[in-house]
Design goal:
The complex is a heterodimer of chains A (about 450) and B (about 100). With about 450 residues, chain A is an alpha+beta fold. Helices cover about 30% and strands about 30% of the residues of chain A. In chain A, helix 1 runs parallel beside helix 3, helix 8 packs antiparallel against helix 9 and helix 12 crosses helix 13. A 4-stranded antiparallel β-sheet of chain B has the order 1-2-4-3. Chain B is elongated, with a radius of gyration of 13 Å. Classes of the chains: A alpha+beta (about 450), B alpha+beta (about 100).
Chain lengths: ~450, ~100
């Protein structure tokens, strides 16, 4: 039996202190928390930074380090610093050292780094060791070399190696969401299907229960399955809330691919064992002969500038699409003429908030809005060019008339200047797996003793 | 004919990684599940996204009264032409389908 305490779906989202204390009192074998995912977009991986405030992260992590010392068990974070790039791991390590100095306890920290050298990944590509997953972008070795960060998603094997160092704290770079929860149960010989399934159910904390924002849950793993129990007041899990979590952010609700195999929950059975806990059995782990880890990469594709204007005059509100289309055509022609940029070297788009900003041409509803927010989005090869196009757009956004016959209109700008430099535009460049003969060969483990 | 959202408990859409979108329709009852399962086609979902029906995966999950669809994201998450980083807005468009 292995008890895994999960404080919340991600470090930075806060957790219920009382529920955490209840979890510590119940004697967990490990505390595990996720530090991120791709869900916030490519900029974090591109830059190798966290989306959460350092001060929030530090306070929440200090609380977990204190709870860990009390329980005398390992504390593990996966996908540290939102993206799990090496620089984000270093950021998390720096915070951990600061807290360790303040708390004054001797500590062993295992650091698992998932960052990949783009040059080495390009060589693996050329050696046919990388294969695409569904809807992967069309790439070549050059695409891989142009990534600012590439990470490999560690599985249970790499987390187990980190735990085997006897670490009090494991700071892991990019891992699968489930690996940090499944590793210890697997090491202790718990049911493999149950270990992975329980890990998937628990990876978002109390999202598998009622009162999802309460965060804290305990998962008890054993030799046939697992039992999940939310620990906050008023939170309870039911067969419905638990089984429904397999749907969440999963393209297939029954199959989950992991390094070294896949989980199949087709025959899983979910049973209420009391008012708050659910027991799950019948999940199956199907091992694979081919050990693969998923790769994520992000690369810079230009610079963005953004400008906002407001249309309130009814005539312009009603004719906003034609107005926007005319501006884009005229301004784009001017950019090509005056800046000598080709049509495919830049983008200029006006999205109409209140009209079609959510879905563009796919919008079906038509309504008569009070006003329309115009968001101009510009991308160009350099920051200076993106800014220059913003300036070229400025007089159109301020004064462009629908026809030559009407008086010159003036629209509302929110601030001066109306255009904002939004920095580097990153894109996700890989949805591929890397084949590994040795699971550790793409990862680096470092042990640091403090005090 | 009725709007899907008036027949079900919840329509949710989310990223399933940066390259896929997944839509969960929680019907809430056996009756509603039967109506959605029989009345909502893969072709209708594909049409919402102007996507190829062949790329849409469908799961009818009777014990949860859920109908689920997964398809390649209309734009890769965070790409220059993407309009919604987390993919959650699409639920509104699905909920407005007539079935």
């Amino acid at each position: 039996m292995v008890k895994v305490l999960v404080p919340s779906g991600a470090l930075g989202l806060n957790y219920d202190q009382e529920a955490l204390q209840r979890g510590i009192a119940a004697g967990p074998d490990i505390i595990a928390i996720d530090g991120g995912s791709t869900d916030s977009g490519p900029s974090y991986l591109g830059r190798g930074v966290s989306k959460y405030a350092r001060s929030s992260t530090k306070i929440e992590w200090a609380g977990l380090m204190k709870a860990r010392a009390e329980a005398g068990v390992p504390l593990v974070i996966g996908t540290a610093g939102t993206c799990g790039a090496d620089s984000a791991v270093d950021w998390m390590l720096d915070i951990t050292r600061e807290i360790a100095a303040e708390q004054g306890n001797p500590l062993r920290i295992a650091v698992l780094r998932s960052g990949q050298d783009p040059e080495a990944v390009a060589s693996e590509w050329e050696a046919n060791q990388i294969t695409p997953l569904g809807n992967a972008p069309d790439i070549d070795a050059g695409t891989i070399r142009s990534c600012s960060n590439i990470v490999a998603l560690a599985g249970a094997e790499q987390i187990a190696a980190a735990l085997e160092t006897g670490a009090d704290i494991v700071i892991a770079g990019r891992t699968t969401d489930t690996a940090i929860l499944a590793a210890l149960p697997l090491m202790k010989g718990c049911h493999a299907g149950g270990a992975w399934h329980g890990a998937k159910i628990g990876e978002c904390g109390a999202l598998c229960a009622t009162n999802p924002q309460s965060g804290v849950i305990m998962i008890d793993f054993d030799d046939a399955g697992f039992t999940v129990t939310p620990l906050a007041d008023g939170a309870h899990a039911s067969p419905h809330t638990v089984s429904a979590h397999m749907l969440y952010e999963n393209s297939d609700p029954f199959i989950l691919f992991e390094p070294g195999g896949h989980l199949d929950v087709t025959d899983a059975e979910y049973t209420s064992i009391d008012a708050r806990s659910v027991r799950v059995t019948g999940s199956e782990w199907v091992p694979s002969d081919d050990y693969t880890v998923k790769l994520e990469g992000a690369r810079a594709v230009g610079y963005r500038s953004v400008a906002i204007a407001l249309l309130r005059d009814q005539h312009y509100v009603q004719n906003a699409p034609a107005w926007a289309e005319d501006i884009v055509a005229k301004c784009s022609a001017k950019v090509m003429d005056r800046m000598e940029l080709s049509a495919d070297a830049f983008t200029l788009e006006l999205r109409l908030i209140g009209h079609s900003a959510s879905f563009g041409k796919l919008e079906k509803r038509k309504a008569d809005p009070v006003e329309i927010g115009v968001v101009a989005i510009i991308t160009a090869p350099t920051e200076a060019q993106a800014g220059e196009i913003g300036k070229m757009l400025n007089p159109y956004l301020l004064h462009h008339p629908l026809t030559q016959e009407e008086e010159q209109p003036t629209f509302a700008f929110l601030f001066s200047p109306p255009e904002m430099a939004h920095g580097v535009v990153y894109e996700f460049a890989m949805n591929h797996v890397l084949h590994l003969a040795d699971p550790m060969s793409a990862f680096r483990l470092e042990v640091i003793d403090i005090g | 004919m009725a709007e899907l959202r008036s027949l079900v408990t919840k329509v949710r859409s989310k990223n399933a990684g940066p390259f896929w979108l997944t839509i969960d329709i929680f019907c809430g009852s056996a009756e509603s599940f039967a109506r959605v399962r029989n009345g909502l086609s893969v072709a209708q979902i594909a049409a919402v996204f102007d996507a190829d029906s062949q790329t849409v995966k469908r799961f009818d999950i009777e014990n949860l009264h859920v109908v689920k669809f997964s398809l390649p994201r209309p734009a890769v998450q965070g790409a220059v032409n993407d309009r919604d980083m987390h993919g959650a807005s699409w639920a509104a468009l699905i909920g407005e389908l007539d079935i």
